Structures are given as C-alpha cells and as structure tokens.
Amino acid sequence: MRLKKTPSEINPYLLDKVEAGLLRELDVEIAYNVEMDEFWSFVGNKKNRRWTWYAIDRSSGLVVAWQNGKRDNETCKKLLDKMKCFPINRYFTDDWESYSSLLPAGKQGYQ
C-alpha cells in the first residue's frame, strides 16, 4: 500500500500516523564512511606548526570530529577516540603511517 503525501513540501521519507500504524517495527541502521586527513597552519612563524586532524562524512560533507595537536600517533588516537560513539563503516585516508597503524583492520580504504 502506497500513500501519496500532500503537500509536496512534506518529506516523503517521514512516516505519518497512518503509515506508522501499518508497520510492526522500523529498523534503521546508520553507518558513516569517513574521510580522514590532516593539515598544518602556523602561529608566529612557519617553524611553529600546528596540526588539525579531521574526519568528514563522505556523503554529506559534515565534520564528524577533529583534533588539534602534532602530526603523530597520539593525536590520531585522540581523534579516533572521539569517533568511538559513531558507527563507522569505512575510513578513507591517505597513506600516512598513523592511519595504517591505528585504524581497525579491514576498514581502511585509500582516497
């Protein structure tokens, strides 16, 4: 049974009360595919580098998490710890050694 929703401004993916009554249960699973990278800027002079690591959702472009620090495993680990609450399906990264040593096996792809 398909119900047409009016007006057209209503999101067709939202359930109304009639549709909700037809369902026994609705199981939704959300998983993120994130791109991770890092960039540097400086404070005062270019020898005083500050790194920002970030992860963005590939489909929406939303920033999932970020971490400021050095370009090392410790800072990468802090970023990954911030993302533990999200269901991450796959991590897309460059070939920087921190990613390959810290990301879960079988979940890493390359950009």
From TrEMBL:
Gene Ontology biological process terms, A to Z: DNA transposition
Keywords for this protein: DNA recombination, Transposition
Listed InterPro entries: Transposase_27, Transposase_27_IS1
Gene Ontology molecular function, alphabetical: DNA binding; transposase activity
Pfam short name (any one): DDE_Tnp_IS1
Family in the record: Belongs to the transposase 27 family.
Entry function: Absolutely required for transposition of IS1.
UniProt-listed PANTHER family: INSERTION ELEMENT IS1 1 PROTEIN INSB-RELATED
Listed name of the protein: Mobile element protein
Species of provenance: Mucinivorans hirudinis
